[in-house]
Each structure stands twice: as C-alpha cells, then as structure tokens.
Design a protein that fits this description.
Blueprint lengths: L7 E2 L5 E8 L9 E2 L5 E5 L4 E6 L4 E6 L5 E6 L5 E6 L3 E6 L5 E6 L5 E6 L5 E6 L3 E6 L5 E6 L5 E7 L4 E6 L3 E5 L6 E6 L5 E6 L5 E6 L4 E5 L4 E6 L6 E6 L5 E6 L3 E6 L5 E6 L11 E3 L5 E6 L4 E7 L14 E11 L6 H8 L14 E12 L2 E11 L7 H4 L8 E6 L12 H9 L9 E6 L23 E6 L8 H11 L7 E4 L1 H15 L4 E3 H15 L6 H14 L3 E2 L5 E3 L3 H15 L7 E3 H5 L14 H18 L3 E3 L4 E3 L10 H5 L2 E9 L2 H13 L6 E5 L2 E5 L5 E8 L4 E8 L5 H18 L6 E4 L1 E2 L6 E2 L1 H9 L4 E3 L6 E3 L11 H28 L5 E4 L5 H13 L4 E2 L1 H4 L6 H5 L9 E5 L6 H16 L4 E5 L10 H4 L4 E2 L7 H10 L3 H5 L1
Parallel strand pairs: 22-36, 30-32, 30-33, 33-34, 34-35, 53-54, 53-55, 55-56, 56-57
Antiparallel strand pairs: 1-2, 2-29, 3-4, 4-5, 5-6, 7-8, 8-9, 9-10, 11-12, 12-13, 13-14, 15-16, 16-17, 17-18, 19-20, 20-21, 21-22, 23-24, 24-25, 25-26, 27-28, 28-29, 30-36, 31-32, 37-39, 38-39, 40-42, 41-42, 43-47, 43-48, 44-45, 45-46, 46-47, 49-50, 51-52
Helix pairs in contact: 5-7, 8-10, 10-15, 12-13
C-alpha cells in the first residue's frame, strides 16, 4: 500500500517503507549499520559486500571472496569493516580505499560471527569449527583459540560491560568466555534446538537469544538466569535487533514475518509481513543506531529495505495485538515408590483423598492459577505439580524432566527408621544434575508423608541432615488421608516461589487459542491425533470463536511452541501429535522393566516383539487403543535410543538395555584382572552404566561387548579386553572401576581409562570426577592403603613391600588426566557421528517394520536412477520414502499399492528431471495435487540436477521449489525441511 508521499507502508501509519533494493537475485546475509548511521553494509552470498547510504544508493561495492559472506561488523571508529563467511576467513576492509587491510586465517570451517573488542584493539570470530578466536586488530596475529562448543557456533556477542564474549551453538548452549584468559565464565543450556542468534541490550544487563525451537529468550547477562520467553512465531526466529535506546526488539522469522516488541514488557507492537519466505537463516533486520529506521531483508532475502517508524511507537498500547504473559512454575514431587506422593499431590490440588497404587511415569496436575502483577503489568501465574514415578528404573528417563524446577518436595518414607535420608539422596542427585552450573537450583521442602501410619518423624533425622539437602526452605509432617498440614504445605510452597525468578512467556492470541484448545482436548482423555486432523478441528474452533484461522505452516509452528512448553510431543513419524507427552517416558520405563524380567537375565528384548506389542508390559497406565499404544512404544524406543539407555543390535534384531541386565559376574575373576584405576562422581548409577556402554560401543575400538549386572567387558580385534564396573557409593556417589586382562597393552589401558573418565564427566554433577588409584599386590592381591602410598611418595619412593608375601609393589602409574586429550576428543567426535548414523538407520528400520512412510515420491521414468539415488539419500537422513521401484511388485499399478498408505502419508515430492514431466507422471501429479492438497498436506516440487522449471499445473507452479541446480541454500536441507516441517539441523541437534 502507498503512503501519502508515495512511499509504501506496511500498516496504518506505524511503519513506512522508504526504499527497497535488489542485487540481481543475490541472497543477502547479515547487514550492519556504520556507527554514525550513514552507511549500511550489505554482504551477500556472492562474496560481494556493498555499502548503501540512507537514500538507498550504493556508494561502494567490493568483491571480497569467491564464496558466500555470512556476517559483517564495523569498528567503533567506522574506518574498518570486518566480513567473514564460507571461506573460513575474516576479511578486514579499509572502508575509504575499499582494500583489504587484514586477512585473518586459521578457522577450518565457515565463520558465522565476527566483532570488535575494546577500543578496536582486537577482534573475535566464531566458526562452525567450534572455536572462538581472538585477533590483534593491528597486526592480524591470532591471540587465542578457545574450543568453545562441541559442534558448530552460530553466533557470538561481545559485551563491553562485563568484558565477556557470549557464544551460542548448535548444542543448544550459551557460554560466556573471558577473551584474555580463555576461561569459561558461565554456561547454560538455553534452548531445546540450537541457538541461532545472541544479542545484548545496549541499556540493560540482558542477553537475548533466538533458536530453532521457535522461541526467543531473555537472560540476565550476569548469571545467565532466564527472565522471559517469547513464542508464537509463525516460523523459526533467526535474527534479532534492538533499537539504540533498548526499547524496541525486532524478531525476524523464516516465514515472512518481522515481529516488533516492546523490549521491557515484551508486548507485541507490530507484525510486518514480507512478500516471500526466507529460504534459510541468512537474512537480517537492523535498527538504525540513532534514527527511527529499521532495515530488513525480504523477498526470500534477495532484497534489502528501509522502513521508518514513529519514534513514539513504544509508548503506544496495542490492545489489538492481544498478546498475553504467562509464568509457569514447576513443583516436583519426588520420593521412592509407596511413600504417598500421589495422594499428597491430590490433596495439594484440593481433591478428596483416594487410596492409590504406585503410579508409572510422571503425572502433571494444576495446583494453582491466579493473576499477578509485576513491573511489566499483569501476568497469569500457574503452579503445576509434577509427580515423578518412584521406581528407580524411571531415573533413566527422568533426568530430561528434572529441569526448570522451582520447588522440589522431597518425600521421605516414614517406614525407614534406620536411614531416612537414604530415600532422597538419589533424588537430590537428580535435582543437582538438572541444575545449570552456577545456579542455585530449586528450593527444597522435606516432607514426611503418611504420618497417620506412625513410625518415622522429623525427630528421627540426624542432626546434620540439612547438609545433604541444598537450598532447604522448610520441613513438614503431613497426612493426605487426614488432611494434616496440607494447607500449611500449600502455603509454604506458594510462599517459597519467587515469581521474579520464574521466567515469563509472551504469546499471541492464536497461540493462546491453541493452548486452550489442546488443554481441552487433553481433559477429555484424548491421547493422540494426526496434525492435519487437529488443524481442521482447530480451524473450526477459531471460526466459532471469531479468531482468524492460521495457515497449516503457522499451525505447525504453534505446535512446535507447545512442544517446547511440554504440553504436546510431536512424534517423528506419521505426522502424529501426542497430547499426553509424559506417556513416552512411562512406556520407555515399562520397556526397561520388561527387559529386567527377561528370564535369561541378559536385559535384551526382540525389536520385532517390542514393536508388535508382544512384550509383556505393566497393565496399569497402559493406553487402551492398540494403535495408539504401538505409536507410543515406537516413540519410546526412539527416546531410549536417543538417550543412550538402549543399544540397538541391528544384526540380531535386539534391543540391549545395559541397566536391565541381571546376570552377575564372577567376583573372583574380577579380582584377578590387572589394574586398579577407579573414578568417583556424584551421579546416577544406572545412567552412568548405560552412558558408558553406549559411548564405548560407538567408539569403534571394540569388536565385542559382553554385559553383566553393572559390569561390562570390551574386547578388541587384537584379542585384548578391558572391563568396567559401576556401583553406588556412600553419600550419593558412584564408583567406576576399570580393569584389564593381561593382553591389554599400556597404551590400550590408558586410552580406555581416559574414555571412561571423559564419559563419566558428561553425566556427573558439575562434570566433577575424582580419580581413585588402588594399589594391590600382584602376587597375593592384598590391598595397600592410600595413606601408606601417600607417605611412601612423600619420602621419594615409588614402591612398597607387601606385608603378607614380601613382593615388591610398584605404584608408578600416573592418575588419569582430567583433561580430554586430542585423541579422546577425536574418538568421541567419531563416536557421535556413528551414533547419529545409527539413530537415523534405526528411524528408517522402525518405520519399515510398521509400514510407515514419510514422503510419496513422484518421478518420470526417464529420471528413475536419479529418483532412486535421492530416495537413498533421504533414507540416510532417517526419512523413509515411498518409491514405486521399492514398494510395488511388477505389474501392480502404483495407485493400487499406495491406497492403504495415503491416510498416513504426510507429504509428497514431485521430482522433475532434464526431460521434464513424463506423460504418465502428469496423471500422477494431478492425483497427488488432488489427494494431498485436499488433505492440506505439503506437495514439494523438486528440480533435479540439469532440469529447468517446466510447464506444470498452476497450483504446483506457485509453490516453493527445491532446486538441486543451486548450491545455496542447500537443496537437501530444504527438501528435508519440507518433508518434516523441522529444519534438518534442529533434527540433529
């Protein structure tokens, strides 16, 4: 629409487009304003950077690299411009001359972030190679290399206030680094997906992050404490910008939209829509450093435009945005089975007492909901009780749930008069594992329940018991049956919640409607549904309520937000949505229990038997609908594989549960093994055991793994073997002992021990692991005490004489280094890749056994070989295509073969090669359009290499194409994105 002065406007006078530029179809990446605001630097995928004035005129154009430029940053004096990209290099340009003043080489992968430090004296760069590097801005010499993330780094931001560089990576973490020392100052798991942008406020101690999980989050920069979450975007938020006064926040997503919020209340002020989708996370938006202007990319990031806005915009009240704020407080009810947690939870929620059996899985219930007031205005405050299953077997799956807890009720067993605290030590470990480094963690309330049954009371606890429970705020004796102290406990919980510490969440009206819709469906007992069915029903509900219907892509984005909130769980097959997400963990734990009950005691289950539902599961809490149960079991197997709790033996069709093995190992045989290396850490024994087995198996160093109860033997191709044993220790600690047979070389032993320590540190509280070296006589196996060894070493001796058989005992073995050696890092990196390949292969195998498909593939007979190659590549990414070559017997029409699969086929891909659309394929294309578009399922047109866009039906012509004739954006990534609705990097994160 046109403004009075002829400029194009986006809305009723709030934003006006002043100009828009394109550069021959070049994709624009991260733009940057010069400090004085006179010039906008515009880098592109062609390797060219252009300088554009406020009037929209290009003032300078420089070819920097033959490869794509991803990012740009100005020096504070505006004289130099740093750009970086796909050539793994940072180029520092002299702006006046346009020449390259410095070339900073050293990264081994794409550089995605660059910036300037104090007084322009140094620069920093962050790369897909996982490193953060600093450089001397005068000489170009590399000053420091920091291994900042295990995987790719997407962004980095330097804060002059605290002198730290904050990095965001594909591991979902945000880390803060001292650039001078290379030390990590703070760390947080910030998102479920990977972090795309990191941005600091110019006026407050706040840090903003955008991620592939569909959320923008706000953190206190000083301690990385979560303050607020914004969700409800139509796509993935991939760029952030703050106005110079810190009052406006612009969020650009990859689904045509630019969202403008107040940066203090996070109230949505304006939603701007561009004319085409952003193809990838390349584009950007930038507020002007002093004037009310906003520059942003559009038209699939092939245009850059400038908008002006009313500087008083931030003061407006925009009731039409209908955005609401929520604060969701999670209270965990923790305790072993049979201590009365479920009855206690019912009582706290105001329900009548009801005798209950032990529950399986996590039960979630609303305890309190009220309207509160904070500095930003009104906020809906909700308190949910999470009743964790008490059986120890569930601990394997509960670690992922034990996060973001505000209050933890530690419920003691009133029948344990000997050591009541032993009942909660494992829960205390679970809470510490779920607490980010440096954070205080949830407040603890110790509860002695079922006091109507007598026995243990608070007086039975040891005098120093509070030392074992961190952040203790209260202790109560209760009885749900008689209502004793239930009101007092409820008041204690509500009073202990510091709402200023509970993150708030902003959502738009559509998200609020969907949230209410899903909660209503769940309350009726509905368990699972296909996305398109939920979409149709939600659209009808929107019509009844007078709310605009979302597009299917917007609906999927809203579901993604609900998934991040934990209200639903999107399954990776069948386009299914689980409305009771805790069922996956329940069934995963039931499968572990089934493996424990195998008569042979080897902890294995047949994969076919599991998927076919022929494994005996606990009758309680099972889903009545058999088809739904098959889907949930399928999802549970995937969850177990992802967590490392199960190792898949594809050759024998078995699922191996290390923690479920019950056969015992010969203790005498163990004592005859060589080596006395051990490690101690605060951790969960079953989790440690499963993680060690999975990590060592995927290392590729061993030909065989034999399992006993908490003991494993790993045999090498050379015939030598090393052993590991995991056992609980006093005070919530876990002991890991390592042994070797006589054939193992010194090098093999040292590497095995380093790998065990490294893997243990990944699952230990705070990553802290202590070495335990036990000296034993090689002749009579008599142990030598650590005090004797210490005193001998103080006197310069590295040996001692056995007091039983007089054998000389050497103790020259050095403790295992706490640092990961380059060899260990390389092995673990390779193991991670192997594990990813295995998971993808398992995804396809599980779908094959259940006859599930992800995409229907249409192609011309002339392109048969190309279609088969592309379909094979899809399988390598965990996607199962329906290709008639593989699925249809000779002489069978494809339309007959596919009929039974149509209802569960979520999308179709139409492949077009150099010969164009074949005569038989034309009928197929029409059928695909009618069937799939009629069910509102995606149809993806794909141009194979060497093909030109042909004449096709209008509906197909107007869709977004995947073009394998172009290098960027990666066509395979786009195809995976179209099939799954999830960016492929998010799927692998």
């Amino acid at each position: 629409m046109q403004g009075e002065d002829g400029t194009e406007t986006d809305g009723p006078g709030r934003f006006e487009r002043r100009w828009s530029l394109t550069f021959g179809g070049e994709v624009i990446t991260r733009v940057a304003w010069s400090p004085d605001g006179e010039v906008l630097a515009v880098p592109t995928q062609s390797g060219v950077v252009r300088l554009v004035g406020l009037d929209g005129q290009v003032t300078k154009e420089t070819k920097v690299s033959p490869k794509a430029l991803w990012t740009s940053a100005w020096s504070a004096d505006g004289r130099r411009l740093a750009v970086a990209g796909r050539d793994n290099t940072v180029h520092v340009l002299d702006v006046r001359s346009g020449t390259e003043a410095l070339t900073l080489s050293g990264h081994t992968d794409d550089v995605h972030a660059v910036g300037w430090g104090t007084d322009d004296a140094w620069l920093f760069s962050a790369s897909y190679d996982g490193t953060l590097r600093t450089w001397n801005a005068r000489t170009g010499q590399m000053q420091r290399t920091i291994a900042a993330h295990e995987g790719r780094i997407e962004d980095a931001y330097w804060s002059g206030d605290d002198g730290l560089v904050h990095t965001g990576g594909r591991d979902g973490r945000v880390r803060s680094w001292n650039p001078d020392s290379g030390a990590m100052a703070a760390e947080i798991t910030a998102h479920q997906g990977f972090v795309i942008r990191v941005l600091g406020s110019p006026t407050a101690a706040s840090l903003f992050t955008a991620a592939s999980d569909g959320t923008v989050r706000v953190w206190d920069r000083r301690d990385l404490r979560l303050l607020h979450t914004i969700q409800g975007f139509s796509g993935v938020p991939h760029d952030l910008s703050l106005s110079d006064d810190g009052k406006l926040l612009a969020v650009q997503d990859d689904a045509t939209n630019l969202w403008v919020y107040r940066a203090d209340t996070f109230e949505l002020l304006e939603l701007l829509t561009d004319v085409a989708d952003h193809h990838h996370w390349y584009g950007s938006s930038r507020f002007h450093p002093s004037l009310p202007y906003l520059a942003s990319t559009g038209e699939a990031d092939r245009a850059i435009g400038l908008r002006s806005y009313d500087s008083a915009l931030v003061e407006e009240l925009t009731t039409e945005s209908a955005s609401s704020r929520y604060a969701n407080c999670r209270v965990a009810v923790l305790g072993n089975t049979g201590v009365g947690k479920t009855a206690l939870s019912r009582a706290l929620c105001g329900k009548e007492f009801q005798a209950t059996e032990s529950t399986h899985g996590t039960q979630v219930s609303l305890m309190d909901r009220h309207i509160g007031l904070d500095q930003q205005g009104t906020v809906v405050r909700e308190v949910f009780l999470w009743d964790f299953a008490g059986q120890s077997v569930y601990r394997l799956m509960q670690q992922s749930e034990a996060t973001d807890i505000a209050i933890a009720l530690l419920v003691l067993d009133n029948r344990n008069a000997v050591d009541p605290l032993s009942e909660i030590r494992e829960w205390e470990t679970l809470l510490r594992l779920g607490t980010p480094p440096g954070a205080a963690g949830p407040k603890r309330v110790v509860v002695v329940a079922r006091t109507d049954r007598g026995s243990v009371g608070l007086q039975s606890l040891a005098d120093d018991w509070e030392r074992e429970v961190e952040s203790h705020v209260g202790t109560l004796e209760t009885s749900a049956r008689e209502g004793v102290n239930i009101g007092e406990l409820r008041e204690l919980i509500l009073g202990a919640i510091d709402w200023s510490e509970v993150p708030t969440l902003t959502s738009n009206s559509q998200f609020q409607q969907l949230r209410a819709f899903i909660l209503q469906q769940t309350s009726t007992g509905r368990i699972m549904e296909q996305t398109r069915t939920l979409f149709r029903e939600f659209c009808r509900a929107c019509t009844r309520n007078g709310v605009p219907e979302p597009a299917l892509t917007e609906f999927r984005a809203l579901l993604s937000n609900l998934d991040a909130e934990g209200l639903v769980h999107r399954l990776r097959f069948g386009d299914l949505v689980l409305l009771k997400p805790t069922l996956v963990g329940s069934y995963a734990s039931m499968l572990v229990i089934a493996a424990q009950r195998v008569p042979e005691g080897d902890g294995t289950l047949s994969e076919d038997e599991v998927l076919a539902g022929r494994v005996p599961l606990l009758d309680k809490d099972r889903v009545a609908d058999r088809r739904h149960e098959e889907d949930i079991v399928h999802a549970a197997v995937q969850e177990l594989l992802n967590s490392g709790a199960v190792v898949r033996d594809a050759a024998h069709g078995l699922l191996r549960f290390p923690s479920a093995v019950r056969r015992t190992h010969d203790e005498l045989a163990w004592e005859r093994l060589a080596g006395r290396t051990g490690f101690r850490a605060r951790a969960l024994a079953d989790h440690v055991h499963a993680s060690l087995i999975a990590g060592l198996e995927y290392s590729g160093l061993f030909d065989e793994c034999a399992l006993w109860s908490h003991v494993a033997r790993f045999r090498r191709a050379s015939g030598s073997a090393s052993w590991v044993r995991v056992r609980p220790n006093a005070g919530g600690m876990v002991q890991v002992d390592v042994r070797h047979d006589a054939a193992a070389t010194t090098t093999e032993r040292g590497l095995f021990e380093e790998l065990c320590r490294s893997q243990l540190s990944r699952v230990a509280v705070g990553g802290a692991v202590d070495s335990v070296q036990t000296v034993v006589c090689p002749s009579c196996t008599t142990g030598i005490g650590p005090e004797q060894v210490r005193r001998r070493r103080e006197r310069g001796f590295d040996w001692i004489t056995c007091g039983v058989c007089d054998t000389r005992i050497d103790f020259t073995q050095k403790p295992v280094s706490p640092e990961r050696t380059p060899e260990v890092r390389a092995i673990e990196t390779s193991a991670s890749r192997t594990r990813t390949q295995m998971l993808r292969s398992a995804d396809v195998a599980l779908k094959e056994k259940r006859r599930l498909y992800d995409v229907f593939v249409s192609y011309s007979h002339a392109d048969q070989d190309a279609a088969a190659r592309l379909s094979q590549r899809l399988r390598e990414h965990g996607i199962r295509p329906w290709l008639d070559l593989w699925e249809t017997s000779p002489g069978t029409p494809w339309i007959v073969a596919i009929q039974d699969q149509l209802e569960t086929m979520p999308c179709a891909a139409v492949l077009i090669g150099p010969s164009g659309v074949g005569p038989w394929q034309r009928d197929e294309v029409w059928y695909v359009l009618q069937e799939f578009l009629g069910r509102r399922c995606p149809v993806i047109p794909v141009l194979l290499a060497g093909a030109a866009q042909p004449e096709v039906p209008v509906l197909l012509r107007n869709m977004q194409w995947v073009d394998f004739n172009r290098e960027l954006p990666d066509p395979m990534h786009l195809l995976l994105w179209g099939i799954t609705g999830v960016h492929p990097d998010e799927r692998s994160a």
